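Researcher: Quick test of sequence recovery. Tokens follow.
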């Protein structure tokens, strides 16, 4: 359809796909068709929006709303929003959203007093903020963290990168 009023983008880059983005996209398309909304709402896939750690992610235009951690069971509420209902605040991400602020708080702590620390200390700090090894591994893959192997003299370290400092303003 060409002149839809809403455009919904479901990230299907690797991280979101691993967490079920294709199921979300499929359910969204079905629900839009089932409710007869396919002349008003277009659902497409898109590449990464760089929020890989909180996916699957869905972007709604022209509303400027990003939903994170979406699962197929969330689709009816999202479609209700697309039909003019309220934004699904519990899934919304953006500056000031609780999940974003939790990550910012963690990164603020992770650069204090400096951005590099032994990996064991880093793991303790991450756990204290509610982040596990899988989350850390994802941050490493995304380039928000950098691991440096141990040497004869120094332990393995984890550093907060410039990319993370920029993203979280720390
Ligand atoms: S893989 Fe979806 S935001 Fe990166």
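Model:
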């Amino acid at each position: 359809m060409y002149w839809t009023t809403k455009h919904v983008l479901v990230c299907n880059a690797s991280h979101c796909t691993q967490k079920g983005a294709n199921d979300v996209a499929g359910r969204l398309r079905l629900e839009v068709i089932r409710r007869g909304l396919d002349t008003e709402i277009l659902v497409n896939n898109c590449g990464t929006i760089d929020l890989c750690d909180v996916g699957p992610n869905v972007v709604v235009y022209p509303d400027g709303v990003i939903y994170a951690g979406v699962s197929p069971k969330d689709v009816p509420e999202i479609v209700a929003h697309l039909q003019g209902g309220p934004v699904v605040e519990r899934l919304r991400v953006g500056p000031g959203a609780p999940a974003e602020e939790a990550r910012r708080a963690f990164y603020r702590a992770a650069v204090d007093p400096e951005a590099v620390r032994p990996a064991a200390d880093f793991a303790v700090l991450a756990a204290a903020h509610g982040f596990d090894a899988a989350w850390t591994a994802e941050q490493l893959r995304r380039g928000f963290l950098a691991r440096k192997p141990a040497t004869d003299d120094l332990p393995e370290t984890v550093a907060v990168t410039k990319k993370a400092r920029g993203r979280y303003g720390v």
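Residues 11, 13-16, 48-52, 55, 57 surround FE2/S2 (inorganic) cluster (CB under 6 Å).
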